[in-house]
Amino acid sequence: MNNGKVRVPLLHISRRAALPWYKAWGIRAAAIVLALVVCGLITTLLTGEDPIALYLSMLDGAFGTSRRAWVLMQNVAILLCVSLAVTPAFKMRFWNIGGEGQVLVGCLATAACMITLDNVLPNWLLIIVMLAASLIAGGLWGLIPAFFKARWNTNETLFTLMMNYVAIQLVAFFIIIWESPAGSGKVGIINQQSQMGWLPQVGPNRYMLNILTVALLTVAMYVYLKYSKHGYEIAVVGESERTARYVGIKVERVIMRTMIISGALCGIAGFLLVAGTDHTITTTISDNRGFTAVMVSWLAKFSPVFMVFTSFLIEFLGRGASEIATDFGLNEAFGDILTGVILFFIIGCEFFITYKLHFRGFKTRGAAENV
Amino acid sequence: MKKVFALLLALAMVFALAACGEEPADVSEEPAPTESGEESAESSEAPEEPSAEGGIAKEELKVGFIFLHDENSTYDLNFINAAKAAIEELGLTEDQYEFRMNVPEGQECYDAAAELADDGCNFIFADSFGHEDYMIQAAMEFPEVEFAHATGTRAHTEGLANYHNAFASIYEGRYLAGIVAGLKLNEMIENGEITEDEAKMGYVGAYTYAEVLSGYTSFYLGAKSVCPSVTMDVTFTGSWFDETAEREAANSLIAGGCVLISQHADSMGAPSACEDAGVPNVSYNGSTAAQCPETYLVSSRIDWTPYFVYAINCVINGEEIVADWTGTLETGSVVLTELGANVAEGTQEALEEAEAALLDGSVHVFDTSTFTVEGAAVESFMADVNTDENSEGDTEVVSDGYFHESEYRSAPYFTLQIDGITLLDTAF
């Protein structure tokens, strides 16, 4: 070995040429398997529980009963809806982390209509008004930072983040106005007796309508991004603003239009949450989906199709982890640890898809074989 | 081509998922395939009023509990301990109960309750005020399961046979804890640490809600019964559990001249702020003596074990659980924890005397001769006993010279703002 050959570092990294899709997915699958093994190890070491029982409990938490499966699908649908909403902006390289606030104002607008108009309008009209209000509210919440970005080039990351807090405070303010009973700080189920403004049940389960709606939105978003002129403009602006200007795209208009769409879709998610399932308004109703959606969207490389998988994965992990915590009498934080481990592997594996590791040992062996 | 394929894949995925969800839904129409099999079959024999007759053999019983947080919250820990005690007292085995922790006050509560019902629970309990609407929703859907809810207000007006509220006359416990505080103030006055006029207490409340108002007023009246010059500042955090806000609230009360602090919020924020500042603290939900050895005086708490035992026995015997159950000193539901190391001398004797007086009815906590509102004695008050959207008063609750708290329903409805107490920031 020591005969004056070129010295090779123990480990070096090079960028891969595009990996065939089956290899990329192979790496991802391996990462998930590895993550589950590590989770099992951690659990066994820390708590002495049987890792197989752990995985079974995870599956049971997600699919154990039909109700659990429905709840899981409902959560996937809402998360997917928010993820779809933030995607056009991300594709445009507009860092919209204000999904949380846009969902919240959608919820607020829906709840406001349910509370104030329940005796004024017939039910079908009320629902249409609620939908319109949530679209407008969400769209407006998206437009404000986009307008400032387009006009004065403000930092959209900070702006959208701050808009979240404004939305939370706004909701808190209205909860105090609508609270029942006085002083309790909660609105409770709106129109529990009359069910005014509640979305009707479609099919076998009351979550069905939400799931179908989001399925349609997924297809629509796919078509919009892939085949429409708007979608193309978004992609060009995302690649290079200068190119976009050069070919005559009105960048400011695209930014504002896209953010209205983003915000309005978040508004729909809020509408589905309030009118479809929760029938109440709280400051935590969005449950951080506005932020989780960022991860869902990125993991899926902004593809609406893959987002179905990634949002499913995230929700499945969440439900499974919380079931583990319940079944084995562990603290809820333990579920979070497991979710964290799994996400670490999933996000980490993207590195191995983009880059290749070269070890010195392997290389010499490879060279020897070539000889 | 690839795009079309991907689109098809997406559609297939969506429908596959929807189909996955549908199939088990049909199964649940029949008796559930889980452990609940026997129970649901049994209850279907008497679908009309299963709770009224027969009951359930103890071996086949299953109970479920829903908690807002986990053991890290003093509030939930108190419930969890009581549930465990009741389970032990009743001799239930490990597969006869289920705990669901960290269940938020939203749709998740309904889901959790429905899942417990799916799992074959005959009795389901939720511990947090905001759970109520979702428990009612679940109670409507599962008429054969008994649902109980702590601190709620709607059972007596909802007309559901299987939905029940429970609370305790904790204002009596707060009153007794107030006496401990008042005696401590007296000791400080005698030692020359403060003057009579400086005997100001501070109180960290969660919301401007009747339960909190009733709590701090009874605490204040307890202190005032032994230390007539006492005043009190109250501040609100706008959350039942916010450690930072509670700590800051306690600190600002101390900075504002309060020499003794109590709280109605569920974290260790206020007690630990008091320990750091060396200010005596009257706690709630349970003893904080271990964490705050120097400043802990006493804590009032509700012991939920008697209610759990009562309600679960009702289910076993097929008896009806009352719509509103109010635990008292007598039922052992209202208790004080052990006294701290630094309470004033003679506290134990004073407490025994006051407790005896409360028990025999010679003293009432909200005796209208002991407090005034805007300078005048209270002769009549319409309380909002029946919860409605506008929170209007509907029931006369002052008679025989005292305010009848927790008699017309279990949850408190005392909302008077009496003289001597200053509310600092009601718009949290």
* Separation of the first and last Cα atoms of chain B: 59 Å
**Coarse structural class of chain B:** alpha/beta
Our estimate of the beta-strand percent of chain A is under 5%
Net shape of chain B = globular
| CATH architecture verdict of the domain at 170-298 and 334-425 in chain B | 3-Layer(aba) Sandwich
Report the radius of gyration of chain B as a whole number of Å: 24 Å
Q: Which structural class do the helices and strands of chain A define?
A: mainly alpha
List unreliable stretches of 5+ residues of chain A. Answer: 363-371
Going across the major beta sheet of chain B, what is the strand order?
12-10-9-8-6-7-17
Helix percent of chain A reads: over 70%
Q: What kind of sheet is the major sheet of chain B?
A: 7 strands, mixed
What is the H/E order of chain A?
Answer: EHHHHHHHHHHHHHEH
Distance between the termini of chain A: 15 Å
Output the CATH homologous superfamily of the domain at 170-298 and 334-425 in chain B: Response regulator
Topology pattern of chain B, helix = H, strand = E:
HHEHEHEHEHEHEHEHEHEEHEEHEEEEE
Approximate strand percentage of chain B: 15-25%
